[in-house]
Amino acid sequence: MHREPLDAVRSYRARHAWRVLAEFRELLALSNVTGDLPALRRNAAAVADLLTARGARMEVVEHAGAAPLVTGRLGTGDRPTLGVYVHYDGQPVGTGWHSPPFTPTLRDGDREVPFPGPGDAVHDDWRLYSRAAADDKAPLIALATALDGLRDAGVEPAVDLVFCLDGEEESGSPHLAGYLDALRGRLRADAWLVFDGPVHHSGAPQVVLGVRGYCGFELTVHGPTRELHSGHFGNWVPNPALTLAHLLATFKDEHGNVTVQGFYDDTAPPGDADRAALAALPPVEDVLLERVGVAGPEIPDSRLADRLMLPSFNIRGLRAGDVGDAARNVVPATASASVDIRLAAGDRPERMLRRVREHLTAHGCLVLDRDPTDAERRAHHRIVRLDAALGYPAVRTPAGTPIVRHLAELATEAAGEEALTVPGLGGSLPLHALSRLDSPLVILPIANADNNQHAADENLLLRNLWYGVDLFTLLLTRRP
Amino acid sequence: MHREPLDAVRSYRARHAWRVLAEFRELLALSNVTGDLPALRRNAAAVADLLTARGARMEVVEHAGAAPLVTGRLGTGDRPTLGVYVHYDGQPVGTGWHSPPFTPTLRDGDREVPFPGPGDAVHDDWRLYSRAAADDKAPLIALATALDGLRDAGVEPAVDLVFCLDGEEESGSPHLAGYLDALRGRLRADAWLVFDGPVHHSGAPQVVLGVRGYCGFELTVHGPTRELHSGHFGNWVPNPALTLAHLLATFKDEHGNVTVQGFYDDTAPPGDADRAALAALPPVEDVLLERVGVAGPEIPDSRLADRLMLPSFNIRGLRAGDVGDAARNVVPATASASVDIRLAAGDRPERMLRRVREHLTAHGCLVLDRDPTDAERRAHHRIVRLDAALGYPAVRTPAGTPIVRHLAELATEAAGEEALTVPGLGGSLPLHALSRLDSPLVILPIANADNNQHAADENLLLRNLWYGVDLFTLLLTRRP
User: Fold this and answer.
1) What pLDDT digit, counting tens, does each position of B41-69 carry?
2) B337 - beta bridge partners?
3) Does B379 contact A295 at a Cβ distance shorter than 8 Å?
4) Using 50, 70 and 90 to split pLDDT, how confident is the model at B329?
5) With an 8 Å Cβ cutoff, are B298 and A338 in contact?
6) Which residues cross the membrane (chains A, B) (predicted)?
7) I need a surface site. Which of A256, A267, A433, B47 has the fewest CB within 10 A?
């Protein structure tokens, strides 16, 4: 073999695309709704078999009450080692699909095309529709195909891989930390690569260095013990919906700044390399504002990427009495808000929630974690119930970490387009558990941006599957 | 006849209580759910017959699409005339009844007692359970019984009565103004008396001089065109629930004062007699605070009766996204509040709603009566939709009006307990139409305060029925 391994694998997958799609179809036909343990066990076995067939030594580990974790190693053990994190569970299917979610279907635009056989043409702009086609089984097939292509070309990988294939990501990975603690000695790697999520909206590949953490709370203001006639009691008995409005207005000012004492104190400021990476990101603001139909961002002229480096305070929901045709003339008994806080690097969920509690106390509230007693009702003018969800911290690898540059170069070469180095995504992933493995953590998305992740008609653009094959080929053949 | 007419009628109804209850039972057995035209026609005929049998000249008038109005006159036409307003329709029945709502049932405490026959004892603390027993058929039976007693005693009434018996009160009396305009010439009276609602919580009789008016609005803040992922967009795209909280906080301060410019400007201040009546009302605040389970009123140490003389601003409901287990990590697309404004004497619904609109404009809102266009979304940072419900003005007869003292004296004598003169109730009734008859309007409640009006197990305490008989007896025999 004198050709570059990448050329060889590209040639291989062009010739064997029909076989790749057949194997992908089989994997996708396995229902993998998160939480469905029997189904997830079938997926775990299939995923382990997929990599065993490519020479990896795989093991399906199962802790009581948890979906299995599929782990294993590919390689000799004396080479640089990359950790590969993929999740094999999927979101619930919901409704609105044009083909059944576990009946993988190929389409060319709106037109269904039959799965190809040997020698049939396969077009890069076809899409494969199925739950988990993009999120997150695509990387498994991409890796298997890269390994098949390298074997076909007689190329020995230059790095080892260790695997952490999660069956509970869509449920928040509640048992991942426990699995990792138990397996820690077998999961050493020079870096852990998370294959999940979509490439940039522009179609450019991206190397993502962080995700936000998460915590949240339900806040309920307690008014009278029951709804009261607004004519007989309104204007005299305090209205909990008004109190809630006043309280929420104290959390964030009209300019988008959270006014909770210390809210931004723990956040790690971006380093020089992070700032450079942020500055290099293409502007997306005008397009996004047009798409979502608003006149401007919360903070005038702010850039989305910059705002994602800070913790957020978002009101997810409000509830009191009824509105519209269902509204009744009452003073509501309670008024509730649901809030999610996205955490930036350095923020700690428990500290954030403590600040929220202190903020409420400072604004005159008796803060309870249960409903008030009659005695408390008579003694306190402002009573709130705070139900906190602790969540998990953010993950952020500094852009100056040596392997980041290596990965960005490989992504650029695989895609034939300059890869973006993105210091942080807006979303939260329960990746913090992986940071206990003490290696740099980098996210390498493969799927197209319009993959309908979590929704009906989830799909993978074949061009993005081939990008994944190329990226794995380079990861396997270039030493970091 | 040498006895006082009141004594004579009391003696009559003691002897004939079984007959009164039999006639009441028959009237209550007629289903009268508001909006059920065929049922309401049967009620209108029964009510007209009831009074025709007592010598009134009755007429059932029916405008297209409306429940009938029963009108008529009792008397010679050359005497002082009192208008009698009663409504013969009832609330929908709902669920939770211990006996069917249109199967009138007598109970002594929890124990059902058979309807009495001639000579059987009847106790004042029995209750008659039925939809409309209290609200609002009791005054019709009380009047009929008073007339029977007077005839039995050979007493000629000293006043005439004209009747306005409404079949749509529980639907907001949408056609009442039209009926009154058509019948105006036949409805002249020295005062119009509204027999509806309960006596005071303390059990004392009351003469009520006003009810609040009503207007309201639905306010919807428009954010992004659809719910957005709070991780990807939160902290950058404006959150409509936060904007709503900020806006609501501008409407009413934390001390309970409405901060809309001009909100209190039109309200007629109470006169000397009104202030004296307010001061004479027994304190109810401590008992009510205990009952509703709050530490204090919105405005510290304020009295309920004083607050009812001012317009109110009450948030009936809030809606945005979801809360609790249903909450999702989104920036909501819209956030809505439903508000009712109770109007005091002098306030005009259209002026109040204009002030609300101006307040929103002053706080930077583009105020629409429809959803925004794409162009509006891109041009305006704060967009709200305001859907207004115009309602109706308040009614208030000044406490210094000559007939008020007369009525209070009669109520005191009928009840054997000092009657309260109440300048204004908290609730709203569509009585404004009656004020086009250009006579003082006074509400004379008969029913017990715990009558479960509008709810399951509506009931009338017989003692209150007898109070009604006595009150009508005095109204008929004492010239104002």
Assistant:
1) 999 999 999 999 999 999 999 999 999 99
2) B219, B318
3) yes
4) confident
5) no
6) none
7) A267
Q: Is the ipTM of this complex over 0.95?
A: no
- Give the residue-averaged pLDDT of B355-368: 98
Burial class (CB in 10 A: 0-12, 13-18, 19+), A191: buried
Ranges of each domain in chain B: 5-211+395-477, 213-267+310-392
CATH architecture of B213-267+310-392: 2-Layer Sandwich (3.30)
User: Rounded to an integer, what distance in angstroms lies between the CA atom of residue B336 and that of residue A480?
Assistant: 54
Cα A404–A407–A408 angle (5° rounding)? 85
Side-chain-side CA neighbours of residue B268 (13 Å): 21
Rounded to an integer, the average pLDDT of A250-272 is 95
Distance CA B218, CA A327 (A): 9
d(CA A10, CA A17): 10
- Cβ contact (<8 Å) for B246 and A249? yes
Which one-letter DSSP state was computed for residue B11?
A: H
For chain A, the C-alpha Rg in angstroms (whole number) is 25
Q: Show Cβ contacts of residue A473 under 8 Å, excluding neighbours closer than 6 positions.
A: A5, A6, A9, A146, A149, A150, A414
- The DSSP output letter for B90 is B
From B49's Cα to the closest Cα of chain A, the distance in A is 35
Question: Angle between the B462-477 and B17-28 helix axes, to the nearest 10 degrees?
Answer: 100
CA dihedral A96, A99, A101, A103 (to 10 degrees): 170
Indicate the Cα dihedral angle B458, B462, B463, B466, nearest 10°. Answer: 120
The single-letter DSSP state of residue A185 is G
The CATH superfamily label for domain B5-211+395-477 reads Zn peptidases (3.40.630.10)
Q: Smallest Cα–Cα separation from A387: which of A248, A247, A218?
A: A218
**Cross-strand partners of B61:** B69
Q: Which residue of A has its CA nearest to B214?
A: A231
Test B296 with A324 for CB contact under 8 angstroms: no
pLDDT at A327 over 90: no
Considering only CB atoms, which chain B residues are within 8 Å of A321? 315-318, 338
**pLDDT confidence of residue B325:** 87
The length of chain A in residues reads 480
Give me the phi and psi of A74, to 5 degrees please.
-125, 115
Enumerate helices (H) and strands (E) in chain B, giving the number of each. 14, 21
DSSP state of A417: S
Q: Cβ(B337)–Cβ(B318) under 8 Å?
A: yes
pLDDT digits (tens, 9 = 90+) for A19-70: 999 999 999 999 999 999 999 999 999 999 999 999 999 999 999 999 999 9
The 8 Å CB, 24+ separation contacts for A102-107 are A102/A28, A102/A29, A102/A30, A102/A31, A102/A130, A102/A131, A103/A29, A103/A130, A104/A24, A104/A25, A104/A28, A104/A29, A104/A128, A104/A129, A104/A130, A104/A133, A105/A129, A105/A130, A106/A21, A107/A459
Which residue has tokens 């004939």?
Answer: B16
Question: SS3 for A463?
Answer: helix
**Token pair belonging to A6:** 């990448």
Q: Whole-angstrom Cα distance, residue A212 to residue A134? A: 21
Q: Do B235 and A331 touch (CB under 8 A)?
A: no
Provide CATH code, domain A5-211+394-477: 3.40.630.10
Determine the pLDDT at residue B1: 42
- Mutate which: B217, B316, B334, vs A, most A CBs within 10 A: B316
pLDDT of residue A24: 98
Of B225, B316, B328, the CB nearest to A293: B225
Q: Which DSSP helix (H) or strand (E) runs through A213?
A: strand A213-222
Is residue A445 within 8 Å of A199, Cβ to Cβ? yes
**Burial class for A346, CB neighbours closer than 10 Å (0-12, 13-18, 19+):** middle
